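Lab meeting minutes (informal)
Scribe: AK
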Amino acid sequence: MIRLSAKQLIEKINNEEIFEAVCDDYSFTLKVDAYVPYVCSAIHDGHQFRRELWDKCTHTEYDRWFEEDPCTKEFVKTHPIVIAGCDSRFEYDLNRDPDNAIFDDAWGKKLWKERLTTEQRNKSLEKHATFYTVVHALISKLEEKFKDVIVYDMHSYNWKRWDREVPVINLGTTNIDTQRYGTFIESWRISLSQLDIPGVPETTSLENNTFFGKGYFLKFITKNFRNTLVLATEFKKIYCDEMKQVIFPEVVFAIEKQLQKKLKDHANAFYKTHKS
């Protein structure tokens, strides 16, 4: 993996080059093995947290991990185009708009012992802006090349805080054109419900049951690109013990292995239908 500036990343995208790189501020990675009409994203996969913010933060390392989406990049790592966050959402949240990307309170707890300086805030927001500049260039290139594009926006969620039964997988669709894309939302939901996951008797897959697809990443792409569908896909954290911070590698492997085919088949069907 090479280190590139946002400008260099965009140049490579515009030239349709193959590459795997980390942005030069180490805030996100982008892999392009081939130019295909689908993208996998894992914007909350990151756990990095700037050293200068440690003493100001009320949340422990475990508190931060608990609300992040570990392993979501792992789920989709073999696909041709993968973009993933390296930084913790507690530094800045890529799924929030710039005005709200830096938390004051996080999940009912004040985040900062003392106010961040303007310089500290700006440093975080520059990373946020850089990410979206590259996302815009990437989707622009893919729509130019293929017209119709699909983005698999991978997330996870903590299930033990819920006082009711929640699905293994939730699709958030309230901010996408369900009339236009309803067939492919439903086919993705059904395909995910057929995952065979170790220790999980039934892979329930529901739409808008726990989360509703209101994240900024989905909204940004949907607002700026007329022919790109973003599927916000939330996995219940059945692949780890969220209370003990233990990852279950056999579960992560099973999900990743099955998504190799399921995700590719779904993306190909989407493109074939819209192309025709």
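Next up, CB showed the second protein from the same session:
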Amino acid sequence: MRKQFLILVCVCITSISWSQVHEIGMSFGGVNYIGDVGKTTYLSPNAFGGGIFYKYNLNPRVALRGGISYYSIEADDADATNGIRKNRGYSFNNAINELAIGVEFNFFEYNIASTTKTYTPYILLELAGIMYKSPKTDLGNGQFAYQNKKAISIPFGIGFKSKLTQRIALAIESKVSYTFKDDLDYTSKDFPSLNFGGNSNDWYVFTGISLVYTFGRPACFAEFR
């Protein structure tokens, strides 16, 4: 009996080591920019965003995650409460392509195969590379030629996920990204008409829902905890 028990434990450990839980999913929702143009509200989605992602669950509390996302951002000084911005009357729209990797921490143990541990709030922290448009050449009459520019951002946020079916879960997430750059709104000292001040870097915020498909659960994951 003891020998059989040890064999079972070894099989379980091997299964967990080589066949951890995987998740793939897609997210969609709203995006807002925070910077030198328009409103300064931190959570006010006014443009579309979405992406696809993959998660590797190290255990019921921690998952590694990576994803590719597209975010549209826009702002208009006409929506600002600041009188100076309203009088300036500037507006813009841009697009951000993001490639991110990071980690997700669950507040509770999460196991979609379980009948009791099927939901949890979580927090996340990522490191991302982004690409967006930046002005390159002044063509005159307020027109510019643009180029692709690359930068680093640090997304972090909170979410809540819950099981829908045996394989599918639903998540609600809000993620704030700090960019180290001040030109998502095309601010530039190289062009007088775009040099409208600002001394802080830009942010963008994604708030949305995700559908997640889970696969690859090891046989002993739920039983030995």
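CB comment: Residues 2-18 form the longest helix (17 residues).
No objections, moving on.
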